[in-house]
Amino acid sequence: MQIDRTISLLKQGKHITEDAVYALCLKSQELLMTEANVTHVDTPVTICGDIHGQLHDLLTLFDKSGGVEKTRYVFLGDFVDRGFYSLESFLLLICYKLKYPDRITLIRGNHETRQITKVYGFYDEIMRKYGNSNVWRYCCEVFDYLSLGAIINNNIFCVHGGLSPDVNTIEEIRAIDRKQEVPHEGAMCDLLWSDPDDVEKWSLSPRGAGFVFGQNEVNQFLHTNKVELIARAHQLVMEGYKEMFDGGLVTVWSAPNYCYRCGNVAAVLRIEDDLQRNYTIFDAVQPQDGVGNAIIPTKKSQMDYFL
Amino acid sequence: MERIIQQTDSDAFASKLCAINYKYLPPTPCAITGTIDDDLQSLYQNIATLHIDYYHNLKEENRNVYGKINKLMRNPFPVMNYGTYLRTMAIDSSIINYINNELPLKETKFQIVNFGSGSDLRFIQYLEKFNKRISKFIDLDFKDAINLKKKILSKSNLLNQLVTKYNDQFIMLEGDLKDITTTMKQLVQNLDLTIPTIFITECVLCYMTQIDSQNLITKIMNNFQKGVWVSYDPIGGSNPNDKFGIIMKRNLLESRNLDMPTLLIYNSKSNYPDRWNLDNNNNSASIDIRDMWDFVSQSITDKEQKRLRSLQFLDEIEELKIMQSHYVILNTAWNI
């Protein structure tokens, strides 16, 4: 089957033709189009945070958490940008989505947009790998169809960034017209951009988009929607995950040694049938090829230290 | 090794050009807290013109270096531009603070030494601002670096005119900081040991061995009666869980064979200043050390921080914090 061949090539970081990417993107759009803004997911399920183009760490993630053949996954977004293998990481995830539609849920992150990928590396990666921007455009079309959130057993709300002052109920998220570039403000923007912090009320975010929200907003949301946990990603956590607000919110981060220099570990969160939370921590690996030789990541084109 | 260290000048110059291109530099009015904002404004007023002119002349003088800088400048990450802004502002505000606080009388003359200056154009900025108050401004670097700089400065009408204007004050010295005897000889020949002297090491000590950098600091502090040392460097981090420095050392060795011998030795704000704590009668007035995250939170106004974040959609605040807490600005004034 064609898709198995593509998966095998992707795992080795090998080139995928422009036509093949086009076909994959078209198929996944058709599939994603049918999904709701907030997808229902059943336990047991493994929640994964930011990936950021770190293909070899994504492979480790699948390795350490059971693999897509045996395990259900929710990915909280930020598949692309910063790492050297944004394309391969994103394509691998959509191949899995096409092959196992019920076993993998992909939520949109704030990096799955045209504007941000132009600044943070995905656009440049495509220009470097293909010499033109077609593949970037195909992928951006898919980004527009990714869902905005997921709900696990009607009990755990999953989103990339966080809450929005414009959203009181999950029902309101379902009403958003999501098939567009992420706007600079409003509910859709906030869901992808906001951060939790120890604040008394809604505050402006230092990121320039979204809001900062505190325990009051979280408690209100949990109560109104009758859920017990908000699982989100979006912020680097050196320990891989961080629970806040008496366990009412968790940040999960799945890109170890972020940007190949931050020195952090990564985590995924498995939710059991009884909603028990089990974290798996993993470290970055030196990328290796099929026969165990170290791969030096594609020559860096950008400055990364102050010298 | 010498060549590998010299190549870091291209990174530093490309970073600064980038920060200028993307309008991080110069800072806007009311960028910094305290009383030195006006001084910084005048110090930076020609920064864009000077650097862009140097860059254009570099193109004709050395295609290789020009090409490298050109490539490095493509699509810089916001965190890098932000950090270059902080690095530049931290060094200059340290120098200006020293001049304003320790040398308040307008007739007091002083000297500046920029170790490992590379393509840095601070000499023009400072000579234009302080003019006759600066008796000497010395740029000292490896022979090849100084040669290239001399060529570019003479090629550019604008820069050549400025160099000629400050002919009696500006001196370029070829040397190697490892050779402390020759370095001291050169400095003594050109400078007055009795007047206040400002020493700048911007990412210089990090490339030297522990012994060489200690010798340099000790000799300078024992021979110059009054001065200040302004130093900017990375620190590896001292927390056992902090792997930033270990990874940085490994990345730089693997990608370009660049070594930072003391990154993991002087790895914190508390031990980085050790080299300036000389065990003699040296009346070291004060040692002030801050990491760049302290600097941005304490010294850059909210208004300016907001402007900086908006320039390129700065997204990754956590990454910025991790990086910037691993770079420090030290300034220590002494008076024997």
From TrEMBL, chain A:
The keyword NAD does not apply. Residues 107-112 form the Serine/threonine specific protein phosphatases domain. Transmembrane segments: none annotated. Pfam families: Metallophos (PF00149). One of its GO terms (cellular component) is protein serine/threonine phosphatase complex. It is an enzyme of class 3 (hydrolase). GO terms for molecular function: metal ion binding; protein serine/threonine phosphatase activity. Belongs to the PPP phosphatase family. This is Serine/threonine-protein phosphatase. The lineage of its organism: Eukaryota, Fungi, Dikarya, Ascomycota, Saccharomycotina.
UniProtKB/TrEMBL annotation, chain B:
One of its GO terms (biological process) is methylation. It is an enzyme of class 2 (transferase). Signal peptide: none annotated. Its EC number is 2.1.1.233. Coiled coil: none annotated. The keyword Transmembrane does not apply. Gene3D superfamilies: Vaccinia Virus protein VP39 (3.40.50.150). InterPro entries: LCMT1, Ppm1/Ppm2/Tcmp, SAM-dependent_MTases_sf. This is Leucine carboxyl methyltransferase 1. The lineage of its organism: Eukaryota, Fungi, Dikarya, Ascomycota, Saccharomycotina. The gene is PPM1.
